Amino acid sequence: MHRMVLFFGDLALISLSTILALFIRNDFDVSYERFRSLAPYLLGTLLISSIVLQILRTDRTIWRFSALRDYLIVALAGVLIAGGATALGFAVNRLEGIPRSVPILQGLLIVAMLVGVRLLMRLRHAYRKRPAQFVPKDGDMTHVLVVGVSHLAELYLRSVSELARETIKVEGLIAPAGRHKGRLVHRYPVLGTLEDLGDVLKALEVHGIQIQRIVVAVPFESCSDDARNILLDLERGSSIRVDFLAEHLGFRQRGMSRDLEGASSLRAGARRSDAAFSVSPEELRRLARRPFWRIKRALDFCAAALLILALAPITLLVGLLVALDVGLPLVFWQQRPGLQGKPFRLYKFRTMAGAHDHSGRRIPDDARLSKIGAFLRRTRLDELPQLFNILLGHMSFVGPRPLLPVDQSPDHAARLLVRPGLTGWAQVNGGREVSICDKAALDVWYVRNASLVLDLKIALRTIPMVLRGERTNLDAIRKAWSDLRQADLSGVLSPSVGYEVERVGRRSAA
C-alpha cells in the first residue's frame, strides 16, 4: 500500500509539472483551448511515466531515507519521461498545440519536483530531533565505522538513523574492495578498505574524531586473512570495540576465536582531570537566561558579516598563498564540541603539507609546517574561515576556545554553556602556555562574568597577544581558581582544587 501511495504521488507531481510548464510558457495566461490541446500530451506523459517509474523502481525508496543515488535515478526518470512523452506526442499528432519549449520546461520541473519533495521529506525527518542536552555524558555519542557495503550494512545504517541518531554517529564505511572507495552509501562516505583502516583512523583523529566502535557488517569468513588479522589485532590491542553484527543477531560465525570476549572496553569520551569543578543546574539556568547572550549573538552576526566583506581581499590572498604553499584543499576542518556540547566543524586555512611524501613515507609534523604556514599561524590569519563559523552561529568572537573532544572533560562542562570563541579570556592570559585545567578555570570564570565590557577588553588584549605572542598571566589564573573555590559552585569541588590554587600561588611568588 505504501509503495502505491509513493507511485501515485510521483504521478501527481509529474502531472502538476506538465501543467505548470504550459502555464510558464504562456506567462500564466492559459485559455481553455490551449489547456484542451495539452490533454493528449498529458495522458501520454502519464503513460510513459507509469512505465519509466516501474522500470526504475522509484517507489522502492522511502522519501525520508532518500540519498544521492535516489536523486540521480529520479533525475534520469525525469529526462526519460519528458523525452518519451515528446516522442509519443510527435508520433500521435505531431505535438499539435504544444509549444516546443514545453517538454524542456516539463523535464526540468519534473526533476525539480520529484527530487525536491524527497529532499524536503529527508530534511524534515532529519531535523525532527529532541533538543540537545547541555553536555553529552560519557558514551552518549559513540563514533562508529561500519565495515562492509552490503544489505546488512544498509540495515544497520537505517537502524541507526531511526533508533539511535542522537547516540551513534556513523563516520563512514570500510569497504571490502577498493572500487567502492570515495562513493556514498546512504550519504555516508566509503573511506577505504580494511587494509587502509589504520590510515583511516589516523585521518579521522586529525579531524578531531575518535572512533570508539567498529561494526563489522559482513560475514567474518568472507574477509581475507589479512582483513581478519587486522580486525582481531585491533580488538586485542586497542581500546576500540569491534562488534560483529551477525553475532549480535544470533548467528554463529565460523573462523572467529572465542577467547576475545571482553578484550577491550569502550574508550571514555573524555579524560577525568585532576581539578574537577562543575556548575549546579540552578546556576546554569540563571546564566543561560541572561539577555546578554542574545545581544552578543546579534553583535557577532553583524560584525562577522561586515568583516567577511571587508577582509575578502586578504582572505583571497591568504587562500592563494595556501594554494601555492601546500596545494588543495585550501581549508582544513576539525570536529569540536560547541554550544551545549553540540559538535560542529571548525574551519582553518591549511598550514601543513600532506602527511606522506610521493613514496608513501610519513613526513614528521615539523617538516610539514612551512615558513608561510608558520607565519599564518603566528598572525592568526589561518583562522579567517572561522568568521563563517561565527556568522552561522557555531562560534562567537569572544568565548572559550573549542577543544578537541578528547580534551573536553565533563568536569569542565560549564565552559560549554556559551558559544566557543575566536579569542577568549584563557587565550589573552596564556593561551597554549597554560595547562588544560588552568585554561578551563579561566574559561568558566569568563562564563560567570561575561559582559560587553569584558568582551571589549579581551578583544583589545588580543591585538598585542598576536603581535608579541602569548604570555602567561599568573594573577588572572590565581584569581580564577580563587573565585571558583570561594563560590564552590556545585558543592563538589575536588580537593585537588585547593592544591591547584596553591600551586599557582607558588608559581606567581617564584
Write up what this structure looks like.
With 510 residues, the chain is α/β, with parallel strands linked by helices. It folds into 3 domains: 2-126, no CATH class; 142-260, NAD(P)-binding Rossmann-like Domain (Rossmann fold, 3-Layer(aba) Sandwich); 281-509, no CATH class. 52% of the residues lie in helices and 10% in strands. It has helices spanning 2-25, 32-56, 68-93, 102-126, 151-163, 197-206, 225-237, 245-248, 281-288, 292-310, 312-325, 365-368, 371-379, 386-391, 425-428, 436-449, 452-468, 474-487, 496-509, and strands spanning 142-147, 168-175, 184-185, 188-193, 213-216, 241-244, 331-337, 343-349, 396-398, 421-423. The protein has a 6-stranded mixed sheet, with helices on both faces. The chain has a two-stranded antiparallel ribbon with strand order 7-8. Helix 18 packs antiparallel against helix 19 (496-509). The longest helix is centred in the first third of the chain and has 26 residues, at 68-93. It is globular, with a radius of gyration of 29 Å. The model is unreliable at 129-139, 255-276 and 489-510 (pLDDT under 50).
Short summary of the structure?
This protein is α/β, with parallel strands linked by helices.
Produce the secondary structure layout:
Blueprint: H1 2-25, H2 32-56, H3 68-93, H4 102-126, E1 142-147, H5 151-163, E2 168-175, E3 184-185, E4 188-193, H6 197-206, E5 213-216, H7 225-237, E6 241-244, H8 245-248, H9 281-288, H10 292-310, H11 312-325, E7 331-337, E8 343-349, H12 365-368, H13 371-379, H14 386-391, E9 396-398, E10 421-423, H15 425-428, H16 436-449, H17 452-468, H18 474-487, H19 496-509
Parallel strand pairs: 1-2, 1-5, 2-4, 5-6, 9-10
Antiparallel strand pairs: 3-4, 7-8
